[in-house]
Every structure is written in structure tokens, then in C-alpha cells.
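Incident review: delayed structure delivery

Summary: a single-chain prediction request sat in the queue longer than the usual turnaround. Root cause was a stuck worker, restarted by the on-call engineer. No data loss occurred. The affected request and its eventual output are reproduced below so the record is complete for anyone auditing the incident later.

Affected input:
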Amino acid sequence: MPFPDKASAAVGSITVNLTETPEAFKNPLKGFRPTRFMNDTSFSDQEYGTVFKHYIKYTDLENAASDSVQKIKDWSNTAWAGIESQNKKVIPRVFIVYPNGGEYWPEGVPHGDVTTQWTTETLKNRLTAFIQKLGQAWDNDPRVAYVELGLWGNWGEHHIWPDKLADGTDRMPLTFQTALGDAASQAFQNKKVQVRYPDTFTNYNFGFLWDSFALIDDLSGGEGIVARNSWRTQVNGGEVAYDWGQKEIQPGDSPNDTLSDPNHRNYVIDWIKKTHTTSLGWIDLYDAGNAAVAQGAALMQKEFGYQFVINQATYSGSVQPGGSLNVSFSVVNKGSAPFYYNWPVEASLLRSDRTVAWKGIFNGADIRSWMPGDDWNSTTRQYNQAPAVQQVSGAFTIPSNMPAGTYTLALSILDPFGYKPSARFANTNYYTGGRTPLGKVGIGMDPVDQNIGPFNLLKPDNTLSYNLTQTAYDGGYSGGGSTDTQAPTVPGNLAVSGTTSSSVSLTWSASTDNVGVTGYDIYRGGVLAGSATGTAFTDTGLSPSTNYSYTVKAKDGAGNTSSASSSVSVTTSASGGGGTSTAYEAEAAANARTGAAIVSTCSTCSGGSKVGYVGNNDGTLQFNGVSASAAGTYTMTVSYLSGEARSAQIRVNGGSATTLNMPSTGSWTAIGTVTTQVQLNAGNNTIHFSNPTGWAPDFDRIQISGGGSNGDTQAPTAPTNLSVSATTTSSVSLAWTASTDNVGVSQYVIYRNGNQVGTSTATSFTDTGLNANTAYTYTVKAKDAAGNLSAASAGINVTTNAASGGTLLVDNFDNSPSWPGSNDLGKWAGANSFLNNAGVIDSGALKLEYNNNGWLGTDITQNIGSYTKMIIRIKGVNGGEQSHMQITLGGVTQTLADFSGDTVTTSYKDIAINLVSKGVDRTTPGQLTMTFWHGGSSTVWIDEIRFE
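Output delivered after worker restart:
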């Protein structure tokens, strides 16, 4: 719930809960993306527009090869004058040829024959030199959001269709991809780079532009972006095309049609979620005066890019001058993509007129790590992998001369150019100017009150801006209050410690720092390849017989970064025909961790770090980008550390789980290995480690060897006789006749309404988490070990049972679906901060251990108007726990005792809450939350939550 406008003053720590705003609003570097065309003289005003594509003629920036970088800077200063005061930023795309708009070839570059003009060495050399100039002009320009690597082809889109090159193709040749990719990687070390096609620049870590976003005729573009899976560090965007193809089917005939029609709008949002898209153009040209269109635009704006929501905050209620102000908060990214730059998070104390009396930056808070969910499910309209709740905390020293009084504590995210509030949290608590107020703090006294209202709306606020120059921050830092501006020393003795056909291992000498080195960033060809906390790193996923160049930078907790080390060049080994081994470090930035799983230093591990706290039905580790040259059976060697015998469940590409037993390695610092066989698809794969019943060991790395295609290209026959064997209110059980294959069927893939919902190695499957009295259509495909997929079976229609007795089950905690992740409504559910983390499933109930801590949330997000009561079946270890927990639903927050007038006992008991008499909003109930930080310490078991 939002922090109340009035509350009694408190001494000691104060904890508040915040609410996500229903508003759609503009935020930097994301959202609807207007376009400034080559002859436009200004940027348009769009209600959500903060980032603008700008088409730029090549000859505006350089005509003669001798033209200087200053010419580019002068042009930029004129064209972009004043946009910093409007908090706008630019995505520039330089082009040479704009069909029906002119050609802008620079002097000295031969042209005229379309079959050869794009492939000359003169052009290649000129473009690579020009990219270096662009880097010098734009890499540190705060007005530049990202850079589209245009230049080549029609509109700078890396094709010349409908024309052809001399070799009959219309795409940028590989030699140009290499030359321009190398140049851009070196030139833009601070800005993200985007390219047009996901099947180009395959050796470079770039983002992508889907030029016909969600168009039914061009879905291969989106599928290619999903396959490249670079969204965690690189920006994806594009535009919705309305000038070709079967747009009337999807995504609609016009921006108005897309946004006003739920069928079109949800289809586009599905692709935004699948591709983790940050911004889209062309669709921005909608009619904001049309109410239905405007409503659809608001819904879509909230799905683009990042959406940071603060759930809870705890802070010191009173602090003496010179004392320590402790602030912590939990935040979740409910959007589609990360925030891609390291902007600082600030705490501030505001006077009664809302001016800043004191401010300080949280050391070590990296908003780039606040990841959204992944693996979008178009049926449940949720990510199958829910976003992790991020914890941020800091202790700030308040100046000894700060006047006594009551101040408002607020949070904000700063643009480093000017250190002004810019990126905003999506909470109802908001002050114009970019700050999110939490509550009152007394300096030298108890706070007079907790009145922090009234709040302002986010959307109308046009006061935000940034500066064109970067100066030192004039506030404090958590961890002592002093301003640390001294960078670490440069890492020394960078050396190659090992190579394979697809990996390079590096070591270096440690840097020193006046406060302390917190880690190292490793750069391949000038582009960040990963990070390490120790002095070793293995870069994976490389190409055989390829030369790479590496440098390393050290960083400290204040965000200071050293200069780059001396570079080292290395060539990967030639491919060994399946005999080589490729290593993937557990702590690699490309991997995904959830729950309690964390990276920690490990001096005996290959990369200097390990991942621990996997399992206990909470923490998971997923290796992403596990590459296979061909589909087949591979040997996986798992390097791990464990002082006792443990096990882990492994899922490859989301398939069925297999258990891998791992004996003790003798100690928690000794490395051991086990091997197992895995079936990989050609290209990139995922390997997921978990343990639903206990802890897994700590993981160092995995190594993949052997495998490869055996030449099997024959798909299995389609499954037949698909039938329904059973239904409930929330599940459907299916059975079918086995397929045949020339080698052998390895598994079956089950689809609900055209979307994959699971796999099975048997000829049966049960789909859970469904809605009561709802129709679904199922098909099944067979798959063999080589990755060949059969045609779909005949479809079968089935309707789930109606809810008996007017009951709607929220969750019976039978671990189907698994906890945490989803409830029995098929919606997100999870918990954190309990003594047993997210709680554990214990004999068919959710066991929660708490000591004035813990938060549980389960999404309802549907109309429950036909139900009048919520039933919580619960017991406690001692009894009497009804006052320990506070429940929020439909805008009402009360303790369980106040909500129900009932008591928790040591035996299971149905405790009923009258939704009508308590004034719960049953039309839009939102999320059901239960918090346990109200002074109690005990253990409870929740057996079931349902509505009647």
C-alpha cells in the first residue's frame, strides 16, 4: 500500500510499503520512439517521447576524408541544441542512400554501379575511419542514447533490396560486417550499438532493430532476436511497419488500429516482452485525442523497457547530526528490459518546501542488474521466470552541522551528467522533480509527524533535465559519507592462461585502491565481455581460429574505474571436430540467477568466483548461450564444491528435469567434477540447475565436449490419437499414441493455443494452472535427439471444469505449479526475506519462518466480484500468530486479526475474510500481499488460499 499521508511518529527503524502507480509516464531511454527525418529541423513533442531516432546524411558530418571530428561535434551542437533541458536523447543513424530521398556519397568513394559500389575497399576503409570519428564525437555525448550502426545500404539498413550485389545477394558482406563491427566495438565503449539483422554481426555483442516489428510476414526477425539472446546487456528496438505485408492480420493497419484493438495491441506487447524491447517507432504516430487509442498507448508504454517499482523501504526514524542514516529498499523491474547504463541511486533529505537539504549516493547499487523477467508466456501473459526482487541498502553519515528538524526522505535515479533526478520509480509516492518520498526522518529529534503528502502525478512532470558536461557529485556516499573520487590502479601483467576453440582464459595482477577494489571489467575488442571479482576470467562462446584482443579495468565501490590495462591478443584454437571442450563460468554475466543464488569469491575456482545457494526450492542458476555446432548428445562436465553429498536437477532448454548426484568434494574449497550426457540443439542452448527439496552444491563452471550432428535430418512422425484423459477446474490431462523415428523419439512438445507449455518423455502430459470453465486447444509434436521436430498432431478442444460450489482456488501449495513462480490461477507468486528465504513446501503447505521479516505476494489481477469471502487455511507453531501478519488486497490493508476477527491455532483452520464488509475492491483486486515485519517471530504453514 502507499505510505499513509499521516501516521504517528516513530523512533528507531520505520518500514513502509509502496504501491505501483497505475499511470503511464515518460522515462528516459525507453518507450514510444518518435523519428526526426533528414530534413526535419526539430524534435517532435510526443506524450511519452524521451528518445528519438535521427536520420543523418553522411555528408552533413563528413564530405572529405580530411574533415575533422570537430565538424561532427559542431553539427551535433546545432542540430540537438537545447534537448538536454527537455530530458530528450537521440539515437542517431547515419546513411548514405535514402531511396526517393537522395544519395550522399562522400568525396573519393566510387559509386554509380549498384552491384559494386557497396563492396569496394575504398568504401570499407572510409567507413571504418569515419566510425572512429563518430566515436570521438558521440561516445561521451550525454545527448546520445544509443547508436544505430547504419551507413551501409538503403536507409543505412544493411541491405540494398530490391537491388543485388554482384554475387546475387542484397545484404552486407561478411568482410564489411567484420570491418564495421571491429570499428564500432573500438569506437563506442560507453554507448550501446544496434544493428538491423540478428543473423549478421554474429561475433559482436550488439543490440538489434526489428524493422517490421510483429508484422505477421516478418516473424523471423523477432525469432532471430530471441535466439541471439543478447538483451541483458544490449538494447533491442525497432519500428512497427504499416506499409507492407498482411498488416491487417497483425499488427494492424495503423498505429490507431494497433493500440485500440486489444487483439493487435496484446500481440505487439507479446513481442515486446519476448524480445525485451526498449523502444519502438512509427507506432508513436497515434491519435492521442482518441480515448480508446490513448488508453491502449498507456498500456503499451508501461511494457516498454524498464519499470522499476519499489515494494518496501526501511529507514532510520531519527538520527543525530554526525550519526548514521540507514536506508534500505526492495525494488523489482516489472518491465521488459534492463536499464543499460550505470546511473546512480540517490537518497536525499528534503526540507518542508521540498528543496534538498542533504543527499548521498548508494555505493554499489548498479541498476543495470535490476533485470526483468524472462521467457514470456503469451497465454498467462506473465514471464515464466519472474523478475527477482532486488535489495539495496546504505548507511550514510549525516553532516554534524545539519540543522535539527524533520525532513522527508526520498529516493531518485540520477543522470550522471549533472547528477539530477531523471529515471523515475513507478510508484504512487511522487514529488515533481523526479523524487520518490518514503517518509519523515528527524535530525537531532524525533520526526514531528509522517505527513509526506500530497503526492504529484508523474505524467505531467516536464521539469527534468540533464547537463552537457559531467562534474563531480557534490553529495555524500553510503559507507561513510565522504566523496571517493580516486580510481583504482591499472591492472598489470594481463596474460592468457588457456584457450580452446571457443574460449579464452585470462589472468592479471590485482589493482589497489584508496578504499578498495570491488571487481574488474573485461573487454573484448573494446566491448564489455564480462566481469570478475577475482583476478581471472574465462571468455566463452567464441569462434575457432579467430583473433581477439582483451583489456581489463578495475573498479571500486564509488563507481570509479581505472584506465585500461595493456592489451593482449590471442587466437582461439582450431575446431577439433567435436573433441574440444568449451567452458562456461557459473558467474558469467550472461547467465541468469533467481532467488537466493549469489556470486561469491572463490580462490580455487577457474574464474575466481562461484555461484552458491542454489536449491532449497528457491535459488536457481541457468547457463545461457551454451553453444552447439549441431544437434546431438554432448558430454557435460560440472565443476562444483561441496563439503557433503548433494544433488541438483538439470533442465536443458526448458525440458524435463533429470537429477544429477554429486558426492562430497572433501571441503567447501575443493573442486570436484561429475559428468553427464545432455541433448543440445544446434545454436544456443540453456542449462538450468535447481533443487526443489534441498541445497545443491556451489557451482564453478560447466564444460561441454563431444557431440555433433550424426547426419540425422529425418523428423519423427506426427503423434496421433490425441485425447483428453482427465480435467479439473485448473488442469487438463492428455494422452496420445507414440510417434516413430528412424533413430528414436527423445521427447514430445505440448502446445496450448499454439504456445509451448511443456515437454514429456512419455505419451502423456498434465497442463496445470488453468482457469475454470475455460476452453483450450492442444496439439503435440514429437522431437528426436538431433532436434528434428515432427508436424503437429491433430488439435483437440477441451474445457476445464466449472468451479464447484462457487470456489476460486488461488493456491493449494502442492508445488504444482512449483513454488515460487506461479499460483493456481496461472499468475505470478513469490516471497522473499523470510528466515527460510521464499519459504518451502512442507507436506503440501507453504512453511514460512519469520522474525519480524518476510513478504509474500500472489497476483490475483482478475475480477472476483462473484466471490464474497477469502479463505486462508493456516496453522502456527505456537498459535496466536494472527497479529503477526498484515494482508493487503483490493486497496485494503489490515492484520489478519483485524481482517477476520479470528485466531490462528496450532491445527489447520479456515480463517475467513468478508471481502464485502471490509470494502475490498473485488473488480480490480491487484496483488494479494502478506507482510510479516510487524514485531512477530514464529512459523506458520499456509495450506490453501481460496475465494468463496
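Verification: Confidence is low (pLDDT under 50) at residues 1-10.
Action items: add queue-age alerting; document worker restart procedure.
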